[in-house]
Amino acid sequence: MQVPLIRLQCGVNSYEWGKKGSESAAARFAAATPSDNLSIQADKPYAELWMGTHPSNPSKDLTTGRTLLDLCAENQLLLSESVASKYGSKLPFLFKVLSIHKALSIQAHPNKKLAEQLHARDSKNYPDDNHKPEMAIAITPFEGLCGFRPLGEIAHFLETVKPLRTLVGESEASQFVQAANQEGGDEAAKKKALQTAFGGLMSSSPEDVDRETASLVKLAESEGADFAAGGVSSTKGAVLAELVTRLNGQFGSDIGIFVLFFLNFVTLQPGEALFLVADDIHAYVSGDIVECMAASDNVVRAGLTPKFKDVSTLVDMLTYNYAPIDEQKMTPTEYPYATLNRNAYSSGSSVMLYDPPIEEFSVVRTLLRGEGAKATFDPLEGPSIVICTGGKGTIAVGPTKQEIQEGYVFFVGSTAELVLESAVGQDEEFTTFKAFCEI
Ligand SMILES: NNC(=O)[C@@H](O)[C@H](O)[C@H](O)COP(=O)(O)O
Ligand SMILES: [Zn+2]
User: What is the pTM assigned to this prediction?
Assistant: First the structure.
């Protein structure tokens, strides 16, 4: 039976934080595929390209116009028996390209149990009953807020940033600092102190937030590198001062600006990645990324957004794990199930695997340099989606071979032997990302 290679037409979501017009990679990639309902408008934000079977924006077979969701429902072998029997006749993952101009919301994604409860209670704001662990891989330099800082860093800010301490509350702040500075000590008590301090911040009145935001911005503008007593080793004062003024410029007075002092500020270079488990707090700030997640669109938000906020749910649901950001970054490894040809080896091509500790997805980034560099992938017992984010070449499954270039997206059915070959010049790169599930 011929395994299909299906060119997809994918939808793009215009959230307010997206980059505008053709500055948005999500828009450029969507526009690379013919579509009668997409014309890129220069002043419109294009935030997310969705690739997959999620019913909110299902990808379509470019040739027939049928949704991938329907095709998988009709022929579960596209997914493989094992994947279909566990996850039903849809992809277990949702694959995206995000193009971020303004900060995303301060958010977390509920675990499976909480997702079922939220979906049952409020299916409009929580459209899925599924968890949403997610991985981000930088296409361009990326900035994000991810996970709580080491407690000593938060204590430093509570002692040096008066507007922050005022909003948290004097007793909550001093209890927190005492718990944070305790050598060793009870982990549960530290997490409780963190939750109390964070909850104190998040329960601030709009009037207090307005007043303290104005004071915070004034301090950031006047103190520069000395802001927050020069900051901490992971985030210097000048960086914090710039972020405070940038976020204030984007959102005006907003409690989310103060969350900056509680969360790790991380920068990723192209190819670097981070993984967020369910209930991990985060907010992406800038850059273009490939993102892969379990099939869900559940977001609990608490700041930096015009969308529906559910602050009490967010404060209650968080893990209150805290750690230096390097523990949240993911280190890719060489993918062992692909063979490079001589051209690819000699030009320094690479096939790297990003393999988070969950079953629903992994991602492989293939970077083929120069003319005729080729990667041949062992057949997978599961479905894949491939997107080209740079350069051009060909993609083949068995006897079927098609052109592929920046923005093109393909579905590759189960048990296909996939071959990618570059058609770029000597010093150029042909880059693809492949999300897949194999259980
Ligand atoms: N961390 N990234 C994600 O979770 C994306 O997949 C979500 O779709 C975005 O967070 C949605 O952000 P807003 O709700 O518009 O602020
Ligand atoms: Zn998220």
Answer: 0.97
